[in-house]
Design a protein that fits this description.
Shape: globular
Order of helices and strands: EEHEHEHHEHHEHEHHEEEHH
Low-confidence stretches: 1-55, 80-94, 378-408
Mean pLDDT: 80
Distance between the termini: 80 Å
């Protein structure tokens, strides 16, 4: 038994009883073992009466202060620990780099016939003030169309210099081209074409004539694409699917968009008297659709190109970049060419080596507000390249993680 002043703070329950006493031999738990149980009863006075509530409340306040101090100490330790374990560098935010590229191909027009031309009302009135653009972009290939498109894919015409060539008789066996590089690192791509023959049910290699031009589809001239029918069909898609892919967030990392001959401004549509108006109308309907998409708003870039100029093919044909990360209303007179476009998209999507003319070309860095390079993608690509099997098969390549994009 506790006596004296101790009895004022602690008490005993009778043996065998379990309850909120001070010390108890509680037979209900561990028989014969004394278990400390804090008593909430007030102490007795010298006369044997229990003290009033003032004493008990003071003790509780003191206990509450101890608990509060302990909690404060624990919170401080946790916070300091987090400060010391925080990483010294952080991954760039989702909007600090380009992750999705949209190429839109126009045809056979000098930049002098585009800039300031009232027939390009949307382009001049809305698009250019919201974009960065080049005044001295010269494709560098000349006529006809096919070698220009092939150069945008491989950095050189690969001997495909005649627009009448068909893939069945004129093609290239090289695997050194851009979309195969994307495939090797697990990045998706698609060619979206208006009036695509077969409507996406086949790997089209036929040229039925206007409004579709096969020589505006460089991909089927590469044997590794054309010989794999399922792969070709999966990546050669009708343009009418593009809007749905944007809405469902299913667009790939690289989108190569080819309007039909009328909407590229190359040929007059039935009943039309203005090829420039036709091209401008396509941009008026297509650009806002892309701009409304999550892929564009979260690091997208639209690059509008004319494959060649109207006359000699060596006059500036213009190039426009519209992106949340482009310098709006800005232009320069830097000498760019198709190698510049290829180098830029290779850099943006983090694949190497630079192909053909891209190796010595000037990229579009001056037209963006952020660096073009993506160190994360390039690092992973470098790791992939160190393996001899990295580019041999898409299923064997270690993929770049792009959670906002669909896998191939």
């Amino acid at each position: 038994m506790l006596t004296g002043e101790h009895k004022g703070r602690w008490d005993l329950l009778p043996d065998g009883e379990c309850g909120p006493g001070a010390f108890s031999s509680c037979k209900g738990n561990n028989e014969g073992v004394s278990a400390p149980i804090f008593s909430h009863r007030a102490p007795r006075s010298a006369s044997g009466a229990r003290a009033g509530k003032g004493f008990s409340a003071g003790r509780w306040r003191q206990g509450a202060l101890y608990v509060a101090f302990a909690l404060l100490l624990i919170t401080t330790v946790i916070a300091v620990g987090r400060m010391h374990t925080a990483p010294t560098s952080q991954t760039p935010t989702s909007s600090s780099r380009i992750k999705t590229v949209f190429i839109i191909m126009m045809e056979n027009t000098d930049w002098a016939q585009v800039k300031g031309n009232p027939s390009y009302a949307y382009l001049n009135g809305t698009l250019l003030p919201d974009s960065a653009f080049a005044n001295n972009y010269v494709g560098g290939i000349g006529h006809p169309s096919l070698p220009n498109y092939v150069a945008l894919e491989a950095g050189a015409p690969m001997g495909l210099t005649d627009g009448a060539y068909l893939p069945a008789t004129h093609s290239t066996s090289t695997t050194e081209h851009f979309t195969t590089q994307l495939r090797a690192v697990g990045l998706s791509w698609k060619y979206y074409a208006e009036d695509l023959p077969g409507d996406g049910t086949t790997c089209n290699t036929a040229d039925p004539g206007a409004p579709y031009s096969l020589d505006h589809n460089p991909f089927v001239y590469f044997d590794d694409v054309r010989s794999d029918t399922a792969y070709c069909r999966a990546h050669e898609r009708p343009y009418k699917e593009f809007a749905g892919d944007l809405t469902s967030r299913a667009v790939p990392a690289y989108n190569f968009i080819v309007p039909n001959d009328w909407h590229q401004g190359e040929k007059l549509a039935p009943g039309s008297h203005c090829m420039a108006c036709q091209a401008d109308q396509f941009l008026r309907s297509g650009i806002p659709m892309i701009q409304a998409s999550a892929a564009y708003q979260d690091g997208g870039a639209i690059i509008i190109l004319w494959d060649e100029s109207a006359s000699s093919g060596n006059s500036p044909s213009g190039m426009i970049i519209n992106s949340p990360l482009a310098k709006k209303g800005y232009s320069n007179n830097v000498a760019y060419n198709h190698g510049s476009t290829l180098r830029t998209v290779q850099t943006l999507l983090g694949v190497r080596p630079f192909l053909g003319a891209a190796a010595g070309a000037t990229d579009f860095a001056d037209l963006f507000t952020v660096p073009l390079s993506n160190p994360g993608a390039e690092s992973i690509h470098a790791q992939n390249s160190s393996s001899t099997d990295a580019a041999a098969s898409e299923s064997h390549a270690a993929p770049v993680e792009w959670p906002w994009l669909p896998r191939q």
